[in-house]
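Narrative of activities, Objective 1.

The group set out to show that a structural description can be obtained from nothing but a protein's sequence at a throughput compatible with the screening campaign. Below is one input-output pair from the validation batch, recorded exactly as produced.
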Amino acid sequence: MNVFYNLTIAQYWGLLLALCVLSLIILALLAVLRHESRHIRGPGHWLAAVALMMVGTGLAGVAVAQAQGVWVWMYAPASAIQLLGIGLFGEGLRRHQGLPSRAATVVMLSVLAMLVLLGLMASGRQYGAVSSMSLFAGLAWARFVWLSVRFRRPGYGAIRFGLVASGLFLLLGWTVRGVVLLHAGPTAWRELISLANIGLIFFSFIGAGMLGLLLVLLINFRLAERLRSMALRDALTGALNRRGFEERAARLVALSAQMGQSVTVLMLDIDHFKRVNDEHGHAVGDLVLKALAQLVHRAKRETDLFARLGGEEFCLVLPGTDVPGARVFAERLRHSFEVLEIDTGSRFLRCTMSIGVAYASAAMLQSKRVDLVDLLHQADEALYEAKRAGRNRLRFYASPEVVSSRLDSRLFATTGLSSGFGPSSLVWGDSSGVQ
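Output recorded for this entry:
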């Protein structure tokens, strides 16, 4: 504690002024970021927390300094405002992770603490009230540290470590204050309250600076993630765009080969889509695209990749899916879209789609006899045959593995071109039974 004894009055007020300026800077930064990141949860809580902490700290400081009249009674509500601010820092972390809000609980606990402090002051134990605030604030920051430890986001390990460290510094500040007041006792606490607050301000300056910087970084990282996601996704349908697909699909196929999983690729194309645009307008065409995308999003697994490659053409990559499973999934998807009634605002519209399917086993992927480019080419060839065969149907590219399966041969299709499996003598088959 000797380091705090050696501080002059000028240094004390200088440190307090620096803390106020730092808080204002953090408040301004959070206000700007809050305006630019309304879709991100958490910044609103942090902005309110900083504002409440500043107001509560100022009012509590005046109440202790005046020590008479109505200002004395201001200490309890001012302390409750501070506790509410500390609690909102933790609530911001919870909301940032998508967890349900417990702000009501934080408000109730702050009010309860205020009632306890008012009770102590009403009984003439102002020392007890001032000392109890150190305990309450310490517990509030301990909760923040605990929530920071549980903050789990991939790639955010350094941020989590910093949040824990900043919370510990702020907890340490209130602990030092409480220890000094406890050492002083009810008879000498007024002489040592300035020393106690110096310790609090010193550690708060370090902790608040760290916390403010980390919260700003956290918001900026999330904004960068959103911008990256927007750059990799089609704005209309929410599916990956071509750039996002190329970036992720190659990794997925390589990972599937490494894990010994097969890969199936589906190419989807809405039938007569140009006619839809010509007869009903591009706005209705957009509704059709969104309807198909929503259907696929509901049907696909979390591990599947779904992309819009351009116009009305979409692609699905299904890891770990065999030929019969791919056939069931594709046929179910085709039928669901066929019977779907799309509300255009003035009428209900029904459309169909054609699907081309290509399959590669884990052995084929591991031996590099086929890769993603081959699968896309084969699925595209199968799609065009489905179009030539009358649309509103699916076709499989007739690779040796597909031919050797128990799939109905009427679903086979090949161009006779070499696409990683070698030339094939099979011809396009008719599958009029599969509509």
